[in-house]
Amino acid sequence: MSETSSAPTESRRPQRTSPLTFYRQVVAELRKVVWPTRPQLINYFFVVLVFVVVMMGIIAGLDYGFGKLVFWLFS
């Protein structure tokens, strides 16, 4: 009894696309994107800005507090 494996190898590489096909696919995907309106973009900008400022305040406060604590412990 001879065992010959006729199963396809699993190490096949997917076929590469040409740069032109890639560009066309990118353009087609970008056309599907729902772009925000100007008021939405301004709103998102301020939401992110406020969030970043709040996070900076929290981190700065923790840094200051831990710094004071370390100086108090080691002085």
Structural class of the helix and strand makeup? mainly alpha
> What is the helix tally?
2
Global geometry: elongated
Number of β-strand runs: 0
Strand content: under 5%
What is the radius of gyration computed over CA atoms, rounded to a whole number of angstroms? 29 Å
Largest sheet data: none
Helix content: 55-70%
Sketch the topology as an H/E string, one letter per element. Answer: HH
The termini sit apart by: 84 Å
Low-confidence stretches: none
The whole-number mean of residue pLDDT values reads: 90
Family: Belongs to the SecE/SEC61-gamma family.
Organism: Mumia flava
InterPro entries: SecE_bac (IPR005807), SecE_sf (IPR038379), Translocase_SecE/Sec61-g (IPR001901)
GO biological process, one term: protein secretion
Main attributes?
elongated, 2 helices, mainly alpha, 75 residues, single chain
